[in-house]
């Protein structure tokens, strides 16, 4: 039997809905899932490792990647570029690995345009009240920042119908099980 190409999964959702927690648990359980590493032109923060946390590029290197069609998606934020290098993603897909891009809605739509076979999954909080509680409980930001995140969340949630699947993160274990089921179904799809 021939080795099937991997599935490209684009995973988005509002800040605080549990994307990182769900993906960590999924990756701990499944050796065939790879979380894509983004590239950035910002300087590394203390403890960050090139190739693990980000690919740290100069502005010139990043712009060269853009002009060579080397990015699946990219955006400029606070004077720095952020994006998804295409080559490592395509390499892993060809080897049959499933690749997850954890990116925001704007980037997801760019990937959808370029990679027609990408599977888009949106992670929802159970409610806006629960999302607010989770953001407050993290105790990492002031109320003004939390309010901005909640407003951004409403804007992001308005795009959920542009995704192939929506998962409500009531519990991490259920959200992981739902994501595993989506990957299994997509691996078995006749393409």
Task: Walk me through this protein's architecture.
The structure is a single chain. The protein has 191 residues and is α/β, with parallel strands linked by helices. It has one domain: 3-Layer(aba) Sandwich (Rossmann fold), CATH 3.40.50. Helix content is 42%, strand content 21%. The protein has 7 helices and 9 strands. It has helices at residues 19-29, 59-67, 86-94, 105-114, 128-138, 143-157, 172-187; strands spanning 8-12, 33-35, 39-40, 55-56, 71-77, 80-85, 98-102, 119-124, 165-168. The strands form 2 sheets. A 5-stranded parallel beta sheet has the order 2-7-1-8-9, sandwiched between helices. A 4-stranded mixed beta sheet has the order 4-3-6-5. α1 packs across α7 and α5 (128-138) runs antiparallel to α6 (143-157). The longest helix is centred in the C-terminal third of the chain and has 16 residues, at 172-187. The radius of gyration is 17 Å and the shape is globular. The two termini are 15 Å apart.
Shape: globular
Rg, alpha carbons: 17 Å
Strand content: 15-25%
Helix content: 40-55%
Q: Give the biggest sheet.
A: 5 strands, parallel
- List the secondary-structure elements in sequence, H or E: EHEEEHEEHEHEHHEH
- Can you tell me the CATH class? Alpha Beta
Oligomer: single chain
What's the tally of helices? 7
Per DSSP E runs of 2 or more residues, the count of β-strands stands at: 9
Number of domains: 1
- CATH superfamily caption: P-loop containing nucleotide triphosphate hydrolases
Distance between the ends = 15 Å
Instruction: Provide the spatial order of strands within the biggest beta sheet.
Output: 2-7-1-8-9
What structural class should be given to the helix and strand makeup? alpha/beta
Average pLDDT works out at 91
Low-confidence stretches: none
CATH second-level architecture: 3-Layer(aba) Sandwich
Task: State the CATH topology.
Answer: Rossmann fold
């Amino acid at each position: 039997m021939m080795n099937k190409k991997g599935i490209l999964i684009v995973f988005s959702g509002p800040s605080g809905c549990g994307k990182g927690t769900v993906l960590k648990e999924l990756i701990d359980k499944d050796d065939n899932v790879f979380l894509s590493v983004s590239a950035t032109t910002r300087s590394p923060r203390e403890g960050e490792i090139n190739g693990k946390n980000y690919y740290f590029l100069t502005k010139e290197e990043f712009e060269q990647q853009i002009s060579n069609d080397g990015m699946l998606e990219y955006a400029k934020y606070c004077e720095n570029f952020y994006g998804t290098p295409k080559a490592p993603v395509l390499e892993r897909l060809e080897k049959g690995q499933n690749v997850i891009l954890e990116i925001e809605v704007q980037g997801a739509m760019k990937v959808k345009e370029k990679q027609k076979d990408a599977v888009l999954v949106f992670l929802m909080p159970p409610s806006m009240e629960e999302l607010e509680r989770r953001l407050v409980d993290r105790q990492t930001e002031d109320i003004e920042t939390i309010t901005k995140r909640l407003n951004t969340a409403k804007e992001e949630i308005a795009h959920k119908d542009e995704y192939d699947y929506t998962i409500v993160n009531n519990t991490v274990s259920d959200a992981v099980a739902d994501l595993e089921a989506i990957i299994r179904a997509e691996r078995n799809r006749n393409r």
